[in-house]
Amino acid sequence: RPRVLSGIQPTADSFHFGNYLGALRQWVDLQRDHQPFFFIADQHAITVEQDPKVLRERTLRAAAQLLAMGIDPARSAIFVQSQVPAHAQLGWVLNCLTGVGEARRMTQFKDKSSKQGEGAASVGLFTYPILQAADILLYRPHYVPVGEDQRQHLELTRDLAQRFNHRYKKTFRLPEPYILKATAKIGDLQNPTAKMSKSASSPAGIIEMLDEPKVSAKKIRSAVTDSDAEIRFDPETKPGVSNLLTIFSALTGHAPTAIQEHYDGKGYGDLKDDLADVVVDFVTPFRERTLELLDDQAHLTEVLRQGAEQAGAVAEATLRDVYQRVGFVAAA
Ligand code: TYM
Q: Where does this chain carry the motif 'KMSKS' region (predicted)?
């Protein structure tokens, strides 16, 4: 079975619809006929300051949400990044293979450091994509299911894999991004040409998976639409309505054009009311299940421990090859 790997940062109390439709839903689907490794990227989270207590809580909330949406520990290794030390260890080796200029071209660092200024950002934020490359390459995955915003990091990952393979010996598989076009970039409800983002969006722009369902319904009803009143799927000229149609389509399985036809002659209000119902029906059981799972933290930490054990065995085997190939003397 082909391998897949992906990660998510525990930097919010709840995942949002961009995370879910852009990536996490594919994680769940790919479990069926792949060998999956899914992890919570707590080491990536601390590239910006985190409150330790909150980080710990959010890591467990992330685990509960992954289980609630259908990640099955019997099929997938689900684990916390910091519990598998090979990530940071391979990260160091790859740091030594990456040019400063090459790292500087990563647009996410530019975006994320622009507010405070580059000098105030952490070196960890700068080398973030290199740790991400290590996360991926350790497991020699075929596919990495992510949203569009991760494409550049996947390209760097492939470059570093190729460089290592060429300089030493063929060690890494060149992974393919697995990005579904229809949901690769879910828009902010208030600013639909920008992506829905936990750091950049206003609360009204994000549908959180763990919001009270009636809060989500309200956010859908007050989403920004376009100036004319026509319900038509056209992301270029009608980004607001098209974003709603994308979400509608993803949750119901109906094509955007079919939904568009159904609303022929109706108004934005009708579409929003119906989408609000669809969203409420979807998040209500998800939220209940997550809260239930959070009540049993011993179970969650045990699932994560087992996941780290499974993942650790694979990661350490790759790291051993890497250490040998770069010329480190093996401990006797
Ligand atoms: P993160 O935590 O920001 O987001 C998790 C996943 O959600 C996707 N995503 C979106 N997709 C569509 N529309 C949106 N508006 C949207 N917002 C977020 C992201 O593309 C991502 O797939 N660097 C990664 C975490 C990471 C990782 C890895 C991923 C660390 N190591 C190794 C893959 C492989 C990140 O910050 O994702």
A: 195-199
Residues in the chain, overall count: 332
Q: By C-alpha distance, which of 134, 104, 167 is closest to 41?
A: 134
Q: Is 53 designated active site?
A: no
CA dist 193 and 238 (Å) reads 10
Cα distance between residue 323 and residue 223, in whole Å: 52
What number is the ipTM of this complex?
0.99
CA–CA gap between residue 132 and residue 135 (Å, rounded): 5
Q: Model confidence over 20-72: pLDDT tens digits?
A: 999 999 999 999 999 999 999 999 999 999 999 999 999 999 999 999 999 99
Cα(155)–Cα(176) distance, integer angstroms: 9
pLDDT of residue 254: 96
Cβ–Cβ under 8 Å, residues 162 and 24: no
**Protein residues with CB under 6 Å of any ligand 1 atom:** 6-9, 18-19, 22-23, 41, 44, 132, 135-136, 144, 146-147, 149-150, 184-186, 195-197
